[in-house]
Amino acid sequence: MIMFYGKEALDELGILEGINEIIATTETGGRVNAAPLGIIRSEDSLYIRLFLGTHTYENILTRKWFVANVTHDAWIFAETALEDLPQEYFTHCDGLPILKDTEAWLLFKCDPFASDIIIANIEPVKGELLRKDFRAVNRGANLVVEAAVAATRYMSLRSDNYFEELMKTQRIINRCGNPREREAMERLMDRIDNFAHKR
């Protein structure tokens, strides 16, 4: 396990140019929350976008920090997109809440402001490489992450375009994904279906 500090941590822990999909963990009152979050890195700028009404929004607004968990487990992205993970999925490292199976973590501080959408500049503080997870690219795994994003947008905007995207994505995941990724997609669609029936 190797610790990195400041901007050196970005490249070393895999936060590269573009939008980096991570699982953000925050903690309030001893309870850890996890949610997918895109860290946008553009040359020397680093920022995030958060939306009103989420635990992540409230926690970052209050605490002014979050931990970026770097993971290739697409199931976690799908699970945390619409639900809270049980607390047994988390541990603490250097006093910070992280996913138990994360490959690396990086603490960011930020100074968000209250509005319907937060666009906050963030700054890397410190992070740790726990293990390197080498693997071939799998279309199914990547599409589960895309499906998690589409699901959150469908739930908030109720746009048929996002639902159609989810249906198309599910067909490809069923063909290309492994059993865990297919399960992640099924659980995502079940939650959307259950929510639609409650309305």
UniProtKB/TrEMBL annotation:
InterPro entries: DUF447_C, DUF447_N, Split_barrel_FMN-bd. SUPFAM superfamilies: FMN-binding split barrel. Signal peptide: none annotated. Residues 20-129, 138-189 form the DUF447 domain. This is DUF447 family protein. It comes from hydrocarbon metagenome.
